[in-house]
Amino acid sequence: LHVRSRRQRQMCIRDSGNERASAPKQAVENDMPASREDLPVFDQSLAMQRCAHKPDLMRDMHQMLVAQLDNDLDTIRDLLASSDFRRPLECVHKLHGATRYCGTPRLENAARTLELLLKKSATVTEICGAAAQLVDELESLKAHDLDGLLATSEQ
Q1: Cβ distance 73 to 138 under 8 Å?
Q2: What burial letters (b/e) apply to 67-98, b meaning 16+ CB within 10 Å?
Q3: What would the DSSP string read from start to end of 103-138?
Q4: With contact defined as beta carbons under 8 Å apart, do 107 and 84 qualify?
Q5: Structure confidence by residue, pLDDT tens digits, 59-100
């Protein structure tokens, strides 16, 4: 997905194993991030901070993220229609990693939540609820005028 370096790809492949049966449900609940209402779709200052205050890098990271949105949406929607969690875990793990550099806290939150649930012994209902939330956040980001925001950051 958004992982560009060989090392990052290797880490994603290594971490994409099925670890769902290893941790209790309580661990997932303790790791859950802040609520959606507390977070913006896009936080430009966070994006700049995470991209070492380099506008070109910030723009490139967002372009890579946006270019992959449709594929991510398809993968997550497939999750809602099946019980094969390996492929979605790989996608969600990569997406979560990419959001760390893009200043998209709501998407980051949703991806992290689903990734944690996929790795733990979560119920199908919990996973499908988190997947639906992630689809909503991907759609929100897709509808957000990032090109306009990113263009004004260069001025």
Answers
A1: yes
A2: ebeeebeebbeebeeeeebeebbbbbbbbbbb
A3: T-HHHHHHHHHHHHHHHTT--HHHHHHHHHHHHHHH
A4: no
A5: 999 899 989 999 999 988 887 787 777 778 888 999 999 999
Contact at 8 Å (CB) between 109 and 42? no
Furthest C-alpha separation in the chain: 50
The crossing angle, in degrees rounded to 10, of helices 124-143 and 105-119 is 160
What count of residues does the chain have? 155
100-113 pLDDT, tens per residue? 999 999 999 999 99
Q: How far is CA 41 from CA 107, 136, 146, in A?
A: 7, 11, 10
Residue 94 three-state SS: helix
Amino acid at 30: N
Q: How far apart are CA 53 and CA 102, in angstroms?
A: 12
In angstroms, how far is CA 114 from the centroid of its own chain?
9
CB of 104 closer than 8 Å to CB of 39: no
Q: How far apart are CA 148 and CA 135, in angstroms?
A: 23
